[in-house]
User: Fold these one by one.
Assistant:
Number 1:
Amino acid sequence: MNQYNPGPMKKVITIRFFWLTSLLFLISPILSAQNEAETEENEPVDTYLSFIATYTSNDTVVLTAHLFIRRERIPVDLQNAPISFTASGDGQQLTIGEVFTDSTGKARCLIPTTSLPRDKEGMVTYTADFSGTDNYFSASEVFISKPAALDVSFYEEDSIKYIRVSGIQTGSEGDDAPIANETVLLFVPTLFAPMPVGEIYLEEDGVGSMEFPMTLIGDSVGTIMIIARIDENDLFGYVKGGSSCNWAIPKHFLKQDKPTRELWTPVAPLWMIITLLILLAGVWGHYVYAVVQLIKIKQSAKKESA
Amino acid sequence: MKSLTLNPFPLKEATDGQPKKSSRRDFLKKSLVAGAGVVATGGLIEAYLDTSAAESGEKVKVLTTTGEIVEVDKSQIKYPRISRKESHQGIPGKKFVMVIDLARCKNARACVEGCQKAHHLPKDQEFMKVYLLQDTENTAPYWFPKPCFHCDNPLCVSVCPVGATYKRSDGIVLIDNERCIGCKFCITGCPYSTRVFAWRHYEEFDEDTQPYSPEASSPGVEGTVSKCDFCPDLIRVGKLPYCVTSCPMGVIYFGDIDEDVVTNGAETYQFSKLIRERAGYRYLEILGTRPSVYYLPPVERQFPVDRGFDGLNEEVEKRYESTPYVQKQRRK
Amino acid sequence: MASEKELTLLKEFTPQIEHTNIKQTVWMIFLAAVIVLGFYALYVQITEGHIVTGMRDNVVWGIYIVNFIFFMGISYAGALISGTLHLFKAEWRKPIIRIAEFITIIALLIGPCYILLCIGRLDRLYYLVIFGRIQSPITWDVIAISTDIFGCLIFLYLALLRDIAAIRDFQEIRIPKWKRKIYTFLALGYTGTPEQKERLHKATDIMAAMVIAIAVIVYSVLAWIFSVTLQPGWHSTIFGPYFVIAAVFSGCGVMIVVMWLFRKIYHLEKYITIKHFVNVGVLMLILAALFGYFTFSDYLTKWYGSERNDELLINLLFDKYYWLFILSNYIGVLLPMIVVGIKKFRTINNITISAIIVILALWVNRYLIVVPTLESPYLPIQDSRPAWIFYNSTWIEWALTAAGVAFFALAFTIGSKLIPIINVSELAESPQEEEKILE
């Protein structure tokens, strides 16, 4: 790796893995396709599953499984593979359903958390299963986490605007408790990827706040969505919650800085059209005059001969 | 063992109600397929089989769900690429911007290769070029990836006699190669040597079996001009351009200047803050072209410049032979 | 009816119009062969693509554009010489005015063909008309050149009308019936009545003025194609007038060479004398001085300020292109000044030799404007493919260049077979005019 700055770089690489995966899938179809043909008769290939559960608002959880194989160490996504999801806990097992992977090899499903089976600590064990085919080995992945929720709200104090986040871990019998001593990341959803805007530390009461960053740009009336997230937590896994306010700078649709030379527009500037027309009219007018003289010469000749 | 069956609500499937057990043939027919020849772009936007179309007799290889390659008739594949007319309309309410972090570039050329593959470009044509620049003898050399700058005052568009190249409301400058007459005036008009000409027909052009769209800049046509297009076909489906996603170092950031956000896929920054804090600049600002591409100066680099020569093939290495930096190294 | 003087003069040119001797036939076949070779090169270029030329992504314009500028320049000179001399009623012009008009129209037909050779998709050429954008200098050029072609055709026709009428009336000439019919048709029944004379004179005056004005515009527009871009070496305010001057300069050179050739081949020593060579030579001297002045101004300012890219360009010019630069901007300027300026050297042959050098120098001058600039762009060329770094013209381009020159010569030869190469009717008038001046 990089000798100067190994730490952050490594992280970049890990996080970028997903992007790389999809890209490499894209750029290596022919390569992998050829291999496919060669190995078709051979034994099945190993498959890999990466699987997470993300708690979102309204007591729901999103299960995301990503199925891929490796061709000469390059990951290739498998699409349209059936992934079956189950949840279990304390001896109970619940079949959630079966979802086919999409073109990026991902299968997702969204379910309520209220009636999921839990163990004594309130944890849910989620399982994603790919049963395998003639050509592919099966794969299975487990994700264990405790249902939780993040709530984002806004308030103003001494004319300073704040974002408040409160975290709640939900028990199976309504025994909710605050998420204490955890760091929550705040994001703004944008076109391509969520933009980090700060982080909040949740105190003992599960509540934390920070000043609203006044440089954020919202929509045309200043509405902006703030998302709070807990990632890769030992206990809760992934938790996500969000809400909107209208405190952001209204989007002003940056005026294309008015060019002094607007020649790239589809229509030419007026002065240019006028100049051209004057020039053309002047020149062609004289041409017409000369041709008229020629015609008159011809006519006079006809008259004479007549 | 107690077993509950829950009806999962919004079940997000990529396919519309697959029967659980189906023959492979049916499976293929109904599944989302991406043609082997068209995977690069077609795979991103949904490509699907239209069995009602008349057969053209031309076969296209597609990669199926189960990893098999099956030949299907070309006419059976429909691609929702944006038409030439629609491509004149920018993506509403957006104004795209690119930020290139020179401190991170080590000339891995992944951006160049990713772009060339995706746009079906021959070796002779590079939309993205990586230069080894050194402003003066005493200043530091650095690697300089150069896409099209999508200028706000694009001289190339001004000089086009037929309107084959145009600037859209989202700031993107595109070329319509079905309109281009190949006069090359735009190539001389561009001060950044961005545009390339198809001096002959290349086999790579034939690899793309999808209908032409200026947004995809593919397939190429002999005798016309082409260049980096900021991949609007990807942007439309919320994906980042190929060069951004293929760069292993996260050198290239892309985003919407109105939203004030740029991202390289892994890291996302407020554009104005990033430019302010890292002293971002635009190349050759003095020319008044007002580019949409910003550069972050190569300070606190992650790689020494020589790392950029690692693993280059002979042909690429030769390109930098005439640069003052390499000449100087040689003399030492 | 044609005057008697006209008919006697016409008699002298009858042999050229009636017969084509074996030498001339061989000459024309040779020219035709060169043109055929050019067409073969064009066929290769169309079937295999522009890859067969030396042009690549950096140097996208090569000697085709150089030829384009060159032929347009010659054409302009013809128009300017015939137009100005007509308006100023310079008597000495009469024997050479037809040559100037021929140069104008023939070069004007060849020039635009070269820009077509640069176009990647000739099948879409009509897009220039149906999708034309007024902002583009190429559109200006399309409009200006087509206007120029029409103007020059009208002007040439006006100048030919009286001679056509004279041939029609000249019964002794032995030409096929169909040819005579064409002459009769083209003569428009012109018999030289006072009214017809008056009208013809008016039209010619107007068109002479128009042709001068249009030629200035056409050549400036051509220069602007280069100077509106930001390329170092092109982005210059001086380019409009510079190109105009260079054009007339090169045209004078071609004029002298053509005069010399026809004088020798058609034995026109009686009509085209040392006086004509010296007069056109003096014009060439003045233009050489002006051209030298513009060249000096242009490069002095670039060199003095030494903006980075200007400096790179000038270094390239004085390194790789050193001898070409010396030829075009030193020898090409100084030689005509010395030869014409010093009385001792002022012979027909010397003036012609210096004119040949001038033509070459001016062609090279255009090459040095087009190619080195494209070889030194803002971003340094970093390439491993030699063809992409420096421009090396191929046989295809040279074959088509030769074809252009051959067409020029062939059209001149054929033209001189159809109409006297000396304006008979104008010449017939001259004594009267002389009398008027003497009165």
Number 2:
Amino acid sequence: MSPDNKIKEHIIDHLTGEQNPSDELNEWKNQSPENDKTLSDFQKIWRATDFVSNMQKFDSKHAWRKVGATILREQKRKTNFQKAIYAFSGMAASLILVFSLTIFNQPNINHQNPITLSTENGSKAEITLPDGTEVTLNSGSSISYLSNLSDGIRDVSFSGEAFFKVAKSKVPFVVQTASGMKLKVLGTQFNLSTYAENNHIETTLLEGKVELTSPNGNNLILEPGQMGSYNQSTQNLAYKIGTPSHEIGWLNNKIYLDNTSLESLTSLLERQFNVQILLVPTKLGTDIHYTGVLEEKTITDILDALTQLSDIKYKIKGTEIIISAK
Amino acid sequence: MGFEENRFSEPFTNNFDYTSFNELFNLYYPRLCAYAYQITKNPTASEDIVQEVFIRLWKGRKELNIKGDIFNYLLKACKNASLNFLRSESSRRKTLEEIPEKDSINDMDLIEEQELVDFVQQCIDLLPQRSRQVFLMSRFEGLKQQEIAERLGTSIKTIKNQIWKSLQYLRTCLKEKDAI
């Protein structure tokens, strides 16, 4: 039996929450299973529309900003970790295990074991140290730290070239180089180049403040935009004139040349592309200098560019390249 | 927007990437929030709960072995997280509010309820213009019958009639879809 007008009103008032189910409504409901079903269907529909209405109050696009950022951070941390593992190539598997434990801050590991991460020639790696410092290692570079890096001591040993984004902390972050020069910072961004074949260790400061200390006790304080140079044979520290953005060009695969000798360029290319370059005759290396920027992505493209800029030619045999006079 | 045709078609595998995850999120986030809200009655907590469920799903995607439908998994995860929230809230406030038992919410009912929600959504879209307007004002804007009557410059009786028409229409529509 279809409800009469009186019952209709009762049903609507009940559903809209403007009145409790009236006695008449209850009576009508109990009159037949059909009536009971009608009322319970309406109640179901009403609850479902309530749900639909609530759904419209939640905005997934807005919420994704937060969730998407969180999972990207998660993914980046994993990728960095994976890249670092690739950089291990040849290192013992046990060391990889120690490293993974450290990254995730597990207790019960030997805090005295130094952990070393290194890149082969031809590869770069982005790593995040346990204290949150982000390090981009250029080719043929290596960084070691004790596994308790995050709790109080922030000392690392380093060789090669890297760009550091040091996590802010009251504890100084100290980089020890093989030749004895020390670099001390609180929270900052800098590039450090210590390749053994270059007699000078170069530090380029982008943000913050760093202090360089030589083994003989001299020191040099760098302000943003300044460059410091350490002479490995005389142990002298000095400011250097240069262009900071050129020093970090390698982060974007750019090579800036400023009256750079072919000799220095070849050792850079050897590291970056994992090749051996032979200069015939050797004095080509000191005779030829370049100024400009190389943005080529492959070694052959770079060599082609160099043959345009100077009177040289090249031959490639596997990973060996012979550069000779034209 | 229907439930069946908009179900996430892609199987949830270990290779789930950022983009498909974003799609999954957009598809189910409002629904899961509304569901968490049903239990918690707290909009902010509901969003936190659902976001956390998604983040956990992402972090565990390589290890999780999800049998069956991903939406069922998400719905249950939100249910449990919402109940946990109520429990911690009531112990924090030292009140003895009644918290539904985990098993009192049947998982099958849950899914059926969600399907009904989808059909209702489809049927609302099909309502005749005038009834639909009144119905939306009552249901989605939370206006009282008197307020709707004033806004539309008509009587309460007319409003009651329109709501009644909508209900009748929805019931018929849902019966056709075998949803009720």
